[in-house]
Amino acid sequence: MIPYDLWYWPSIPGRGEFVRLALEAGDLPYRDRARAEGEEALVADMKKRGTAYAPPYLVAGDCCIAQTATILLFLGERHGLAPRDEKGRLLAQSGPNELEAEPSEPPWKRFARQFSDVLVILLLIDDLVQTKRVKGRLVSHRENSLESI
């Protein structure tokens, strides 16, 4: 089997990592051209091909496959690294269509947690201190301020 040529920006960490992991998981022969030859060789190869606009890309004979997701789809189908049935392949490609449920906290706990904050306690004390009677009714300083407007 002719080895694949893997190109990516070697100066950007992680750019070719997912493709490299798939190639190694499938025990597929490949040449890490980006590490071996550097950025100047990458730019020269992109100009020569005229089709790869955004590395990473994988060269397989005459075929040039760009973008990580497309490369992984290509390798998965070609070398059995992905499920064979359509449902399994789609699930592997996009993940499950569900939200992870976080354990629900009872409302009383959320309410009680507010009183563990020192600022909340200080504001409550301030409100009690500033409260006064107006026409036989308790009025906070906030209500009194609004009435004066």
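(the above was protein one; protein two follows)
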Amino acid sequence: MQMTGKREPSKPMRTLAKSLLLVVVVAICASLACGQTLRRPEEYLSRGLTRAKAGDLEGALNDINKAIEMVPTFASAFAARGSLKKAQGDTAGAVADYTRAIELAPGVAIPYYARGFLLLEQKNFDGAIKDFDKALELQPNLAIVYRNRGDAKRARGKDGDALAAIADYGKVLEIEPTNVEVYFERGALRESQNDLDGAIADYTKVIELNPEFADAYAERGLILLAKGLDSDAEKDFARHLELNKDGQEYLEQRIKYAKYLRDKKKSP
């Protein structure tokens, strides 16, 4: 059984910030029909993006600053600069630039998501959820936003947030039906809500999609153990240890705890 409470946003979600720059700018440019008439500010922005992709963040920032200087209402440039500032560790500056991009282009989803992602990293869950809500209102099929909104609700932990997060993870899986990580995370959340059959189904799906996902065997095995299906549980534990040879001590501790909880429930 799960022995942890609220969970932080996963590492893969945190590392998405590295690729957010191009996503932000491409999405805004598509929405605003950028580039149809080439002007010097767009040239500076284009060169800035090329420099950013090559790792020259200072050069990229100089170019994008120039684009903003030439056209102070250039929403795409503010969004791009926000991502650059994020990459440089200037979170407050990034939030300010995303906010300005939203003011200039309020009908574009991505700046809301980008700002929400930063707010999620800062544990401002209410602010993040508000931005994710707006992003999904504008663009309902953004799986990444459903995922992060689910993470934010899960971490916030208010009444009803766990079920709302499960629903958001379900939306991700409607859009990305082979997303192994989301099946695993939804399984953990279902387990925390005592939906053991739902959790088993999710962990089983993880194993179907990725038979070498070691933790899915451990988690499913612990639930089977709690349900009294010891033989099936042992098979899962054995497979987990085949894939994770260093995990025996930790797994034994969790098995011991799961048996303690099971026996406690049986006690009068």
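Reviewer note on protein two: Residues 1-139 form a domain with the Serine Threonine Protein Phosphatase 5, Tetratricopeptide repeat fold (CATH 1.25.40.10).
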